[in-house]
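Subject: sequence -> structure tokens, single chain

Hey, anyone have a minute? Need the predicted structure for the following. Not urgent.
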Amino acid sequence: MTDAPKKYTEKQSAFLEALMGECRGNVRKAMDVAGYSKGTGVSEVTGPLKEEIIEQSSMMLARNAPKASHGLSLIHISL
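Reply:
Had a minute. Here:
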């Protein structure tokens, strides 16, 4: 049995895309880009998207960890 694809509102989709892209993890900035009002609380947006945020963040870490680790080892060697 497979899980049905999750459905997000236009704002939620825009928020997730901005959060992982141009806003580089800045939640408030991603909320602004997605069109949420200044009065909208962070938890109102991130709460319902918690699992998706964690999943996308985990994938980003998996993709970038080897490069980051290598870069850090080069810094260590040069010290």
